Amino acid sequence: MSNATHKPAPLALICELTHRCPLRCTYCSNPVELQKASAELKTAEWQQALRQAAELGVLHAHFTGGEPLVRPDAEELVRTAHDAALYTNLITSGVGLTDRRLDELERAGLDHFQLSFQDSGPEIAAEIAGVDVHERKVKLAKRLADGPFAFTVNMVVHRKNLDHIEELIDFAVSFGPQRIEIANVQYYGWAYENRALLMPTREQTDRCIAAVANARERLKGKVNIDFVIPDYYGRYPKACMGGWGRQILLIDPVGDALPCHAAKVLPGMSFDNVRTTPLAEIWHRSEALEKYRGEEWMEEPCRSCDRRSQDFGGCRCQAYMLTGRAEATDPVCSLSPDHALVTSELPEHLHELVQVSVGSNGDGDGGSAGEFKYRVNPR
Amino acid sequence: MEENRHRPKLARGCRLRLTEQGDFLLMPESMLQMKGPGTEILKRCDGQRTVDEIVGELAALYVGAPREQLKAEVESFLARLKEKLAIVEV
Fold first, then answer.
1. Whose CB among A163, A293, A323, B67 lies 3.0–4.6 Å from A328's, allowing a Cys bridge?
2. Domain extents in chain B
3. Does the model's pTM come out above 0.80?
4. 3.40.50.12780, 2.40.40.10, 1.10.10.1150, 3.40.190.10: which CATH number matches B8-85?
């Protein structure tokens, strides 16, 4: 490889092992066009990608999905990553985890276990997830506190549960995790379809910010609380994925290498696949990763902005979904000419958008903005 | 100098990784790149050695560094990692 094409290695590899999932979450950020099981990478193909990632200099391997445990080889892939000296993280609903598999994950060398909850109580959790698995998760969470892995409880927050944010935090704390993530829904894929029902109000968001600040103070040195202010309410956009093709590489279930979870929504992109191209070559030369790397592609106001090396212009997918142009400054930015799209009229404005899109999706049942659209699993 | 008999060790899910790009403390969803004596301190956080013993070993590595200063540096380094829950004391 020539020096001209050299970039720092990615820090993390996100492995979307599958799009299959026993849950049907309305906030799922998987693409609406889910990949079929038969097209998924085989065990040996994932193993090769993991070893190539370690050679490239990747440090963290995140196993996610869909539900990664749907794959019977999840433990084996954790072991491969661990043996290649990668730090391993399992992001899971816990559904499908037997005692035997839990032991197997420990033997495989799993470092970190991240369990997500849709709410603190079973009713809203079931409404959001489309299935009733809350009590099973509670049972598992109780075991994980004294387990062999670092343990994160991931509380996904949205309009249906933010009125009891304090309860959500207490619920998460009750399991004794080292880390709690108060995770805002990311409005991609299925979540984008359901955004009118999921997106919190300004009041809810303000209350959440205060509750998290209070909990951080109270639990300092006992639990780490991760929370990012939802960028629809921020003044500047998030540095999405730490910058396009800069720190993180994602492999989707069929082996396509992406800069993020959502990049397939962008038109005119061509992705390289780990079945045919070595990971190092993908990282250094892939057309998709090169496309919005660095600053060359930027337009004004990003191009001359002092913050361009901090937020990298924000999120390309969000820019595209809201403005129809992937090169645009992320409209979340207060400096964006399209910022009005995400300001004062926020939830109501999006409500209108959803009524249009749901009405035209050919459901046949006249689906309205008042009803969730649940994930349909791939075959 | 006050004795420090705490025996620090890396918490569950935290580990030191030495690579060609640098030395990293890998933690859940995050990492810290080690600078200065960080790596040498963490290598010795095994739950066996006391802080004073670690300082003693570092004094042998960094000849000429005043012991008092070395100890302050080790203690503040460990305190920061303790706050991040990366270090526990046994």
1. A323
2. 8-85
3. yes
4. 1.10.10.1150
